[in-house]
Amino acid sequence: MKKILIATKNEGKAREFRAFFEPRDFKVVTLSELDDIPEIIESGKTFTENALIKAQSLTNALQATVVADDSGLMVDALLGEPGIYSARYAGDHDDEKNNEKLLQKLLTVPNGKRTATFHTSLVVTRVDKAPLIVEGEVSGEILRKLRGRDGFGYDPLFYLPNLGKTFAELTPDEKNEISHRGQAIKKLDEKFDDWWIDE
Ligand SMILES: O=P(O)(O)OP(=O)(O)OP(=O)(O)OC[C@H]1O[C@@H](n2cnc3c(O)ncnc32)[C@H](O)[C@@H]1O
Ligand SMILES: [Mg+2]
C-alpha cells in the first residue's frame, strides 16, 4: 500500500491531511507515531523554505513520502510580523501569550489599518522526485479583543469582514472552506495526482 508521513504532531492538521490522502489509498502516519525522529531545524527565511526543509529532510532520512506545511500570520502594520515566527512570537509556543503580544503591538493601530494575511506553504516530497509545492492565503483584520472559542492560534483575533466572524467562530468545515490551509489543500487536489504518476 502507498504510505505517506505527515510531518506534524498537530492533530488538527493531521486530520485535514488524512481526509485528503486516505481516499487516495494512502496509509497515513504522523510524527506522533514514530520513535526516532531526526531533529529538524527550521532555519529557512520563508514559509516555503521551512516546509521544504521539514519534508525533504524526513524523506532523505526515512526514504519516505512526506507532506509538511508551514503556516503563519502576516500583519501589514507590523511589516509582516510575526510571519515565520508565528508559533513562538511571545517566546514559547503559547497561543494565549502570542495573542496578547499581538494585541499590545497593535494597540495604537487604528481600525482600517489592522489588515493581515494567513499564509500556508505545503510541500510533498518523495525520494525520486522534485518536490510538489503549493501555497494558500486568506486576508482579514485583527480585532481588539478575542472572539470565539473554536480553532487555535490566532483564530480568535482573525476577523473576516465578509462573514462578520472570526476564524474561532466558524466550524472546522467552514474554516477549511476558506482558510489558508484549505486553499493550499485545494491546490494540492488540483496537482497531486499528476505529480504522483508523472515519471
Ligand atoms: O510545524 P508543526 O509541527 O506542523 O506545527 P506549528 O505549530 O509550527 O504549525 P504552523 O507552522 O502551521 O503554524 C505556526 C503558527 O502559526 C499560527 N497558525 C497557523 N495556522 C493557523 C490557523 O489556521 N489559525 C490560527 N493560527 C494559525 C499558530 O500560532 C501556529 O502555532
Ligand atoms: Mg511551523
List keywords for this structure.
metal ion binding; RdgB/HAM1; 32% helix; dITP/XTP_pyrophosphatase; ITPase-like_fam; globular; binds inosine 5'-triphosphate; alpha/beta; Maf protein
Report what the structure shows.
With 199 residues, the chain is an alpha/beta fold. The chain has a single domain (2-197), classed as Alpha-Beta Complex (Maf protein), CATH 3.90.950. The protein is 32% helix and 24% strand. The protein has five helices and seven strands; from the N terminus they run βαβαβαββββαα. The protein has helices at 11-21, 47-62, 95-105, 172-178, 180-197, and strands at residues 2-6, 26-30, 66-75, 115-125, 132-142, 158-160, 165-166. A seven-stranded mixed sheet has the order 2-1-3-4-5-6-7. The longest helix is centred in the last third of the chain and has 18 residues, at 180-197. The protein is globular. 34% of the residues are buried. The model has no long low-confidence stretch (mean pLDDT 95). Inosine 5'-triphosphate (ITT) binds next to strand 3.
Helix-and-strand structural type: alpha/beta
Per CATH, what is the topology? Answer: Maf protein
Q: Give me the CATH architecture, please.
A: Alpha-Beta Complex
Question: Biggest β-sheet, characterized?
Answer: 7 strands, mixed
Mean pLDDT: 95
Could you give the order of the helices and strands? EHEHEHEEEEHH
Shape assignment? globular
Secondary structure layout plus pairing:
Blueprint: E1 2-6, H1 11-21, E2 26-30, H2 47-62, E3 66-75, H3 95-105, E4 115-125, E5 132-142, E6 158-160, E7 165-166, H4 172-178, H5 180-197
The structure holds inosine 5'-triphosphate and magnesium ion.
